[in-house]
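Collaborator request, handled under Task 6.
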Amino acid sequence: MQHEPMNLRQRPLRGKHLADLRHRDRDAIVTSEGLIFRVYGYSHPPKAFICDPEYAPAKLYKSEDPKAYRARGRRVYYKFYGDKGLHFVKRNLPKYMVWHKSLGRKLVGVHQKHINEARRPSNALHSLLQGKNGDLLLQALRSLLDMVLQRTSLSQRDFGVFGSLLNNFYHPNFSDLDLIVYGSRSLRRLTETLNTFHSEADSPLQNEFEDPNSVKDKRWKFVNLSLKEYVWHQRRKRIYSLFHDSKSDRTIKAEFEPVKSWDEIHNEYKAKTGIRRLGWVKMTARVTDDREGGFMPSIYCIEPVELLEGTKVEGIERVVSFVEEFRMQAKKDELVYIEGNLETVEAAKPHHQIVLTYGRRYYEQVLKVVR
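Structure tokens returned to the collaborator:
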């Protein structure tokens, strides 16, 4: 696995260090206004990054949702949920829209010249663990990582943090443990280890979705995926746990989100000369390759089985999902049901794909195993 240079590991990146810096999924970009964007995926236009707006300072944006409130010392931020960040940027700060040549439209993004600071999850984890003791949450973070590292061949360099830990918004007594695992091999080893932990009755680490009541208060909008089906899919992903920390006597949600290692990243932006939508499709298919199903976007190579509705075309090769619920959703050789937008990709080797992403029929989209 390739790691970033050691001299970039210790602190947020500013000024001249940003000149030719690469970014990958879940890196944080901060603008001069204090907006915090999450880098989205791995394929980006030259000198720009496709992003998702995550947080805004209170001087720019306020939310009535009590879950959106974040504080960093005296500074208050609010988290964007759903498509609120997209609409905020379009209305108020259109300079954070980037032209996507293949799609023929603008997406939320940040040009390199507008980056004021960059925060890398691996750097942040290193900094958080440097102290000898730390608060209760950081002690729990260290305990959880130690447990995992003792049972695997992984090292601290294979992990990072995102969300409140990355941006120093966390509350020692209430925040979750949001971690990143880098690379396909690390993800495989981690999920095998978590599966073992989850199967042990006396383990302090248990599967978050083992209890169906884990989603009893969840507001659910997906039309073609029931809450029961959602729980079934989430349970087998193994990256969602409940960690009982003995020191604080608190049960903490602990996530391990997959991100590609540097040597796995290939920027597809230049390879595509155009993307044309052909309409909505419903179909069943068999998954032929799920190796990129854990990342964002989640990519599944498929072999169509039956077209139930929509335009009939030859050679639908893959499903590309930007919907987090459908990450790690299906495995090789499984039969799946799909609803989404059919696209023609004009490239050196033209092909068709089904895309699941933000749009008018967002909650009708689905990728699920036909059991």
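The cover message to the collaborator said: "Confidence is low (pLDDT under 50) at residues 1-10, 15-20. The two ends are 36 Å apart (CA to CA). Please let us know whether this matches your experimental observations."
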